[in-house]
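FIELD: query
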Amino acid sequence: MTLATALTQIMHTPEPAEQQIQIHGVDVPRIRKIIDGIDENGYIAPHLVHQLLESAGIPTVPEFVSADRSEILAFADQCGYPVVAKVVGPVHKSDVGGVALNIRSKEVLAAEFDRMMQIPDATAVMVQKMIKGTELFIGAKYEPRFGHVVLCGLGGIFVEVLKDVSSGLAPLTYPEVESMIHTLRGYKILQGTRGQSGINCQKYAEIIVRLSTLLRFATEIKEMDINPLLADERDVVAVDARILVEK
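FIELD: result
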């Protein structure tokens, strides 16, 4: 498990010293209002995830959640095809066939909506504008001794198989995050290689710092991951995220 691997790397690290937390426009009062309004422990609803990321200033792909097929189709028409559809309810969407990529027509989207609503525990369907880019990953886990351990790395096989992640303890500063990114084995891919453009590493670092600040003011968040973020030379955008809250 990626989080466990990172924890073993820092198990003997002393608790972080007090330092000036970098707010940088993170809306702390709104974050606290959202967290305080959550009544049940567990993975929170997609709209709350979106609100928390928005409050932290983390860019997200345009999305819409509904259990009404006509509303889903109307949003897709508005944002334009191709789109991605994801089931809402099951935690591991891919394992239950709850993700459909590169949907290019209203007819296919309607069929996918009907199929996904039949998946056990499905409560709605999320549709997103489909975008392209290099897949990145950010994760976090709360440990009573340390606080939040924050992870970053490339997505896909790099995080799942190669365990190519860097870790740090929140709150994180820009120099700390830049060091985390530079120590990734796949850092050359982020810079650009073999004719491929690199990504905007400055924006990636900014998002990690913003996430670190969000977590510092919401210790009720026990686990969180944004996977993937899609990045190119201009932007880094969160595509999918999940947040576990325990009070």
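FIELD: remark
Residues 199 and 232 are 4 Å apart (CA to CA).
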